[in-house]
Amino acid sequence: MTLWFQDEARFGQKGRVCHRWFARGQRPPGLSDQRRTWAHIFAAVRPATGEGFALVLPHVSTRAMNAFLRRFGKSRGRDEHAVVVLDGAGWHTARGLRVPRNVTLVLLPACSPQLNPVERVWLYLRERHPSHRLLDDHDAIVDALCRAWNALTPARLRSLAAYPYLEAVSI
Fold it and tell me: Does the structure show a pLDDT above 90 at 74?
């Protein structure tokens, strides 16, 4: 049995403000895009090993979550059963959700995103990859998001997902 944490995030043309070194008293130059094209990344991280699994999709829905779970389930070994901890988003608890036999979903308590280590992965990606960049279209967003995810090493994922309360869990 392996312990995983799952979440999804939206990335797109409307970037976020992030820290930038600049001379005191002057406004730093920065790129700003007013277009609103998005892509969503569904990801699961195994904090114990830094292993990650991600899928970039055009929207969030029960159908998209089913696609993620199907591929995630197929990527697990024959004898592996994955316990996936996630929030209570509507598409995580929908009637139409099809959970593979080798996956068990466990919901986090309501209003507690701070318990999900994947939230730190999103902060890291937003700060270092799509910020201060103009992306032309949906394909450019997907490419940038895939490059950013693929640049994450197991050591980086393990360090980002190293929540102190997880040390007590031996899965």
Answer: yes
